[in-house]
Write a structure and sequence with these properties.
- It comes from Chryseobacterium populi.
- This is FeS assembly SUF system protein.
- InterPro entries: Fe-S_Maturation_MIP18, FSCA_dom_sf, MIP18-like, SUF_FeS_clus_asmbl-assoc.
- The protein is built from four helices and three strands, in the order ααββαβα.
- By secondary structure, the chain is of the alpha+beta class.
- The chain has one domain: Fe-S cluster assembly (FSCA) (GMP Synthetase, Chain A, domain 3).
- It starts with a helix and ends with a helix.
């Protein structure tokens, strides 16, 4: 089954909701608001590709966080497969955080 643009947008919204339930253990803000998710691509077939980073390459959850993200996204209805690419280009910095995240951390 091929999804329409509207259906893909809905799936994308659900994926973002799931990403907002995954937290960086060192910062009490979810990975989406932190700006760790660089891109979410969804094909007409429901195949999802996520390009994300970690706050540092030596992040203590470098092993577990990507798997948690994959598992959460795989739970979204109509998601066929999840491919997660971890990148450190560009490297993450505080400017990538949402206003909400900066506010929560007392940076505004």
């Amino acid at each position: 089954m091929k999804f329409t643009d509207d259906q893909i947008a809905d799936i994308g919204e659900e994926i973002i909701n799931q990403l907002k339930t995954v937290y960086d253990p060192e910062i009490p803000v979810d990975i989406y608001e932190l700006g760790l998710v660089y891109d979410v691509q969804i094909s007409e077939d429901g195949d999802v590709k996520i390009i994300m980073t970690l706050t540092t390459p030596n992040c203590p959850v470098a092993e577990t966080l990507p798997q948690e993200v994959k598992d959460k996204v795989a739970e979204v209805e109509h998601v066929n497969s999840v491919d997660l690419e971890l990148t450190f280009e560009p490297s993450w910095n505080k400017d990538m955080m949402s206003e909400e995240a900066k506010f929560e951390l007392g940076m505004l």
